[in-house]
Amino acid sequence: MLEKYTIGALSKESGVNLETIRYYEKINLLNKPSRSVNGYRHYDESAIKRLRFVRRGRELGFGIAEIKTLLELADHPEHPCKEADQLAQAHLTEVETKIKDLQAMQEVLTKIVACQSHTAEHCRLIETLDQRSCCN
User: Fold this and answer.
1) CA-CA-CA-CA torsion for 83, 89, 90, 96, nearest 10 degrees?
2) % of the chain residues with pLDDT over 70
3) 1-79, which class in CATH?
4) Helix (H, G, I), strand (E, B) or coil at 5
5) pTM for this prediction
6) pLDDT band at 112, cuts 50/70/90?
């Protein structure tokens, strides 16, 4: 017999909060569960697996539309993976851009935290946010 999970148990097992599970059902990332006579949702192991897939995809920065595409491919393993490859390449490009931005931010913050001023008038962080030239 297949084990059935309530939404609370599903949340605990998958690491996805209740409201997010309901949202994922609403946008069809997660199939509508069966319901008991009293109206409670009942999920099976496949829902846990699917939610973990979605959660991991979100952790890696994939958007909902991208995850829908990846789930479609996961649901049809006989399909070619060209679309997944294209998504991965596009995502890699985004990640590389973010890394460059973060490195530039790190460089600026390194300069800012080295500020020796004792007053806000010459605080490098305030100057940077105010788009003034930092004093040397």
Assistant:
1) 160
2) 95
3) mainly alpha
4) strand
5) 0.75
6) confident
